[in-house]
Structures are given as structure tokens and as C-alpha cells.
Amino acid sequence: MFFKTSIFVVSFLAAALLAMVGEAFADKRVALIIGNSAYKHAPALPNPANDAAAMSVLLRTAGFDVIEARQNLSVTEIRRVLRDFTDNVRDADIAVVFYAGHGMEFDGTNYLIPVDAKLERDVDVEDETVSVDRLAKMLEPAKRLRLIILDACRDNPFSKTMKRTLGTRALSRGLAKVEPTSSDTLIAFAAKAGSTASDGSGENSPFTTALLKNIAVPGLDLRIAFGRVRDDVMKNTNNKQEPFVYGSLGGTTVALVPPPAEPAGPSSSSIAAPPMLGPSTNPAADIRKDYELAAQIGTKEAWEAFLSIHKIGLYADYARSQMAKLNTEEAKKPNQPTAPAPRVPQSTTETPRSAPKAETPKTSAATSGRNQIVCGKTGCQEVKPGCTATPLHTVPGMGGDWIVACK
Hints:
The chain is elongated. The relative contact order is 0.10.
């Protein structure tokens, strides 16, 4: 039942994606996306511009109302963009900022580095960069969700050349741990505090690649989505990079992309729609139920059926592990010879099950000097020498059975 429902959901999504994101989700969603690659006084980064472009396409397809996408911004341009974007956040329900590029932690505060930053001295940090705290304050008016995603935990290219004027001001690797002061706020790092992230060898960074795969799954809660992002990044970096999310959300599901819309029911209120007929409003729960059903069956065929529908995600990985376990156990079993079919002893007094009742002897028959076997509807039994086996063909419903009597 769950498998059939999931297939229906996939078909429904393919046919009605635009209607789903336009009508089923009344919240206003806005996003600001920045990718800095062309640094003037530091090594250029190949992927941030690609990462920003890919995220812009993803959120635009997901039906966000406002997408502000910018690349290779100077410090003046970043500040102007943040100021203008504040107007969009004022009446938004969900507000997202994605930044890819160089970032740094200085004296316990995290900063985004514009493409024109020189950072010759530590006192230049406040003038030539933009703090993450400013992003958080800009998003405060959003009603349901404030989300900041930073693919900016790369090595700081200015750490070795920057002159220190105050020895008490620390400069460390990666970004510093943050504690959002506003509720319903998440700040996601490409790598946890104090560690660095890889820019990757592909078109996108490992972190952005995982985001593109998981963050816009319809109806998927962000906490689960970022858990999948973490798993994918750790797998693709051999556990060298662990993304981390700071902040907390409430007890309700918070997703960037809405779940599928419920189809319109019959016009008559007297006809109730049968359960599970339309697409589920909680795809994550349906996937879990499908997984539990496959686990109850526990066969390779059940896991293959599950994976034919749910090809990616955490439960798909679990299913593949279960199939691998079954294959390993099957390989360890010794080849068992096929057991020969049991031989049915023949008796001169035995009546075959398929034989007509008329062929059954009507008189008792004494056995010879050796044991014999007679079989009927209720099974087979042994007839020893000196005993007789009488067919019960005269008793209604007992044709083909025998009664054995011994002297």
C-alpha cells in the first residue's frame, strides 16, 4: 500500500510542481545569494560563483518569491545589497542568505570577505569585511524562519600576512562557534567551528553539492535535510569535513519547499475521501513507513522494491546496507543438495486420493507377513502383520481414510 502511494506521489509531483509551489504554500519566501570568486588580493576561488548560481536556480525553481543573486561583490557593494534586501525581509515569512567565498574568524566574530579586501592589518577587519552578526540582524523581521548558510570555512588567505597591532586579538582557523540570539534561526557552516572546508575538485564544493541534493526536497524538515547534507559531505570527504548547524527550531515541520498539495475532494460533503488516496503531506514519514514495511518482509525483493521508489536519502542508504547484509549471509551458506521427493509407499490395500470411491475395496483385508502402509485424507499409518485395514468409504466425508484393527 505504501509503495503504491509513493509511486502516486512521485507522479503527482512531476505533473503539478508549479501549482504546488504557487498555491499550496502561502508563506512569502525570500533569498539573498552571494558568490565571491574573483579576489583581487588573494587567490581566486573557482567554485563560489558556480555554487551561488546553482543555489539561485534551485530556490527559484522551488518558488521563492524574491531571489537576489550577486557575484564578486566589493565591501561597498555587499553593504548596499544587505541594506536593500532588508526591505524584502520586512514582510517575509522565510528568509535565507547563502554565501560562498572566503570567510574568517577574528577575535571571536565571523566575517565575510569581499573581493577587494586587502586586510593588511588587524584593525582593517571591521572596515573591509562584513560580519555574520549583521546578516543575522538583517533577517530578524522574518516570521517563521531565518536561515544563513555559509560555505565560507576555507583557509583564510590573509592570516599569514596580516599585521597584528594588538596581541590579545586572536585569529583562528575556520569560523567561530555561534549562538543565534533570535528564535527560529539556523546558521549552517560548511565545516564545524575551528575547522576548514574543501573547495572541492568538481563544479561545486562538497557542501553546496550536498545542499543542492537535499535542501529542497518537498516537505522535508530542514533538520533532517541538514543531517543528510552532513552525511553526504563526510562520505565524500572521507570524514575530513563535517558540516554543522547552530540554532534551533520549534516542534513543527519547517521545510524550504512545501509538501505536495492535497487534491480537491468530491463536491458532496457526504462522500468522504478514502485515506491514502492522494499524496501524503509528510513524505518523510511515508518513506519511513515504506522502509519499515520492507524491513518486516526482510527479503531482497522487498528491498529492491523499496529502492525502485526511494533511490536517494538516508533510508535508501539503510536499505542498501540491508541488501548487502542479505547478500553476505547468502554467500556464507553452504550449497544445500536438493532433497529428493519423499517416496510414497505403495500398498495393495491403499486407495489413491484421486481414485474414485468405487475403486476402494468394501471389505476388510488382512495384511501379509510384513508391515504395510495405508494413506488417506488424514495421513498415513502402518499396518502390522495380523492387523486389518478397512476403508471408510461408507462414512460421509471420510472416503479414502482407513481404520486399522489388530487381533
